[in-house]
Design a protein that fits this description.
270 residues, alpha+beta, Mannose-Binding Protein A, Chain A, Hepatocyte Growth Factor, 2 domains, 5-stranded antiparallel sheet, 16 strands, globular, C-type_lectin-like/link_sf, signal, CTDL_fold
């Protein structure tokens, strides 16, 4: 009898452990590219990226600071950056609501200046940074306020991007349910050659290097900011950009140059 009882105990324990493993995998699968792509109600796809609105029931109102939000997208994603003005506007309309007023994005400011930058923690433990292009940021009316402690920004229902204290200091708009937007990238994506030219405005340029075309495209693909690149096949000059020559906001700033081939991330919306 003791042997049967022990066998029954271990069988039951094994079943419980298997259920726990399954449950953990089920929940962990959400914070992956495939998990994001399968959750159409809470995700937005553009240019191959998948952006997921995510929150946990244990997050108490006004409790999630930006530094903590940076770590919540798991080992496969990062806190979202605003890749286009339209993407940020979509975050507002799709992810915020009367029951979810605020949602963190990876926008920061040095309080001693008025300079804003995207700063997001990557799966490799390093931060990716790029100065925010203000004309490409869907700020709410009269924003940013640039108050003395307003050193971060989130997406606010009915307004757009608004600045706030990264540690919630001085937040006085009532209990705020906390959520985040996670950004996930596909393993591969297409970058079509369309036209010729480059941007000469350094504010648009993420990096400039020298190398072969596949390396240039890969550099763009690995960046959470990159939408287009200009490559010179003669000199091997590679310039990757956070904006696209096909975006009406920036098309007028293109320098036509037949020596440079444009490669643009497929599937973008402007």
């Amino acid at each position: 009898m003791a042997s049967c009882k022990n066998r029954s105990y271990f069988i039951n324990l094994r079943v419980v452990l298997l259920l726990l493993i399954y449950d953990c995998r089920l929940h962990a699968a959400v914070l992956t590219y495939d998990g994001c792509m399968s959750d159409s109600a809470n995700s937005y796809q553009v240019g191959g990226w998948c952006f997921l609105s995510y929150r946990e029931s244990t997050w108490r109102p006004n409790s999630l600071k930006l530094v903590d939000a940076q770590t919540k997208c798991g080992p496969k994603g990062n806190l979202a950056v605003g890749v286009t003005y339209k993407a940020l506007s979509t975050f507002k309309t799709k992810f915020t609501s009367a029951s979810l007023l605020y949602i963190w994005i990876a926008l920061n400011r040095n309080v001693s200046t008025t300079t804003w930058e995207w700063k997001t923690l990557l799966p490799n433990g390093q931060y990716a940074k790029f100065p925010a292009i203000m004309a490409n940021t869907a700020w709410g009316s009269s924003e940013p306020g640039n108050g003395p402690t307003e050193n971060a920004a989130w997406m606010e229902y009915n307004l757009g991007v608004t600045d706030v204290s990264a540690d919630m200091t001085g937040f006085s708009n009532g209990a705020a349910p906390m959520a985040i937007i996670c950004q996930f990238a596909p393993l591969t994506w297409n970058y079509s050659q369309r036209g010729h030219g480059l941007f000469t405005n350094a504010a648009y340029r993420i990096a400039q290097t020298n190398g072969i075309k596949p390396a240039c495209i890969l550099q763009c693909h690995l960046s959470v900011f990159c939408i287009s690149l200009a490559f010179n096949p003669t000199t091997s000059d590679c310039q990757i950009y956070a904006v696209s020559p096909e975006d009406p906001k920036f098309a007028g700033n293109v320098t036509v140059n037949s020596a440079y081939d444009w490669y643009i991330r497929d599937g973008m919306e402007y």
